[in-house]
């Protein structure tokens, strides 16, 4: 049911974005966006959860990421910024891992965000150049969380991950 709701929300967000950029513009006009559009509607943290700062290990000098997370007994919500400071053939990204252990089984949820640009005709592509986006994700896996910087090669499309840092 959650997946269906996420897909429906993603489709609605995409349609709203298409309507917003459907006005005539130059073919080179771009809008920076988050790669994980479905995470934009993640639930807000409860008032009782105190926000704590996060910042990954600085594995790549041209990539910066920072923000806050809130956790309660049923949900963790992460918000922050992702910044690419240079055009160097790599798109900035950050990845979160949320885990929950039930008995002897560990469940994992990965949430990866990278900077994409949207052309005036609606096509999306990995953006390489200076830019900053807002990221937001949420998970019901509240056992542990990790964050790591990563880069996506413009040439091959593969992701390269830095060292992970445990948040809690």
Summarize the structure in words.
With 168 residues, the chain is mostly beta strands. Helix content is 11%, strand content 48%. The strands form two sheets. Strands 1, 5, 6, 7, 9, 10 and 11 form a seven-stranded antiparallel beta sheet that branches. The chain has a four-stranded antiparallel beta sheet with strand order 2-3-4-8, with no helix packed on it. β3 and β4 form a beta hairpin. It is elongated and about 45 Å long. Mean pLDDT is 80; it is low at 13-30 and 37-47.
Keywords:
168 residues; 11 strands; elongated; single chain; four-stranded antiparallel β-sheet; 11% helix
Structural class: mainly beta
How far do the termini sit from each other? 28 Å
Number of strands: 11
Let me know the largest β-sheet: 7 strands, antiparallel
Q: Tally the helices: what do you get?
A: 1
**Beta-strand residue percentage:** over 45%
C-alpha geometry: elongated
The low-pLDDT segments are: 13-30, 37-47
Radius of gyration: 17 Å
Q: Give the helices and strands as they follow along the chain.
A: HEEEEEEEEEEE
Instruction: Provide mean pLDDT, rounded.
Output: 80
- Which bin fits the share of residues in helices? 10-25%
């Amino acid at each position: 049911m959650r997946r269906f709701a996420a897909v429906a929300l993603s489709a609605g967000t995409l349609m709203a974005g298409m309507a917003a950029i459907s006005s005539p513009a130059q073919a080179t006009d771009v809008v920076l966006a988050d790669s994980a559009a479905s995470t934009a509607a993640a639930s807000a943290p409860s008032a009782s959860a105190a926000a704590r700062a996060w910042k990954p290990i600085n594995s790549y000098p041209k990539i910066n990421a920072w923000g806050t997370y809130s956790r309660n007994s049923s949900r963790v919500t992460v918000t922050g910024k992702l910044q690419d400071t240079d055009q160097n053939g790599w798109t900035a990204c950050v990845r979160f891992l949320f885990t929950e252990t039930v008995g002897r089984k560990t469940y994992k949820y990965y949430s990866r965000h990278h900077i994409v640009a949207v052309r005036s005709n609606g096509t999306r592509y990995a953006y390489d150049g200076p830019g900053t986006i807002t990221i937001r994700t949420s998970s019901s896996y509240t056992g542990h969380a990790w964050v790591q910087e990563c880069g996506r090669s413009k040439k091959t499309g593969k992701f390269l991950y830095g060292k992970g840092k445990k948040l809690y």
